[in-house]
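We store chain and fold; thus.
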Amino acid sequence: NEVDSSLVLPLAALAMQRSDPEVRLQGVKCMLRHPAVSHIAPLSQLLADPHPGLRHDVCEGLYQLSEKSELSEPIRAAALQVLAGDRWQGQEQASMLLGALEHQPAADRLIELLESPRVEVRLPAAWALRKVAVPETIPALIDHARLLTERRRSENPPGLDEQVAHLFEALGVLRAEDATPLLLEYVPKSAKQNNLSRGAAIWAIGRLHEGTRDSEIESALSKRMMDNEPQPSEKLLVKQMSAIALGRMQAVEQASIMERIAMSDEVKIAPSDNGISDYNLSVMRLNLALRWAIRELTGEELPPPQPLAVGQGRWFLEPLP
């Protein structure tokens, strides 16, 4: 492969059947470098490979090859076959591939996979449903999001928050107005670990009510932005999405509040000597969201936020003071 990958072609199919993942990878690299319709079927079978890095490489490689017009349909058809199979690894990668390709015929199977026993399948299936954005899936998306909302009252299994967030994003993309009552349940502050779901719900509310005034919703979102109580503290993601939603809703009366928050020290960067912390990134995103919303509502351009200064940390050798 390093010298001349065409020399590997006679061996590639056999290499991809070997037990050693490093050998299989060499076969994959060869076929990806020499794209052909006849290579799609053997490559697609490795979407279900037990080695996570290898199946990811195959997924990424097929996505890149799909840009070739003669390979696009064969890749989609092969991925659909893998998606319909019973290997969870294949369901995982085929969901990611077909979602990235926005392949709408995969929607029905993706709905089924929302109930997979594997979180590795449920999450990419929910993400892919947002990407394919098929209006006919709206009732199933709402029903499943409501079911998960009820389930989290008594349990909080891994991935549930992320899955609900993806479903809410899909409902926002699809402008599913029937989802509004469920989305509004996620606006009030909660001590439970459902922060991604709340951020996605508020983002979706902004999409559903874009250009439409609603005083009750505007007041509820404004309270989220102004909430600085410490126990429990409101998440910066929720404040960020509240600002974006209010900007989309044209809630002009909230512009002065957002300007006060943006220009004050209510939310500020925390000193850090070891790179950019997640908290500081969240602060930066909130500042940018506030400035975007103010511009949308008033046309005013606030000064850009202060640049984020990052220290180099402590080295194992440093000069004496």
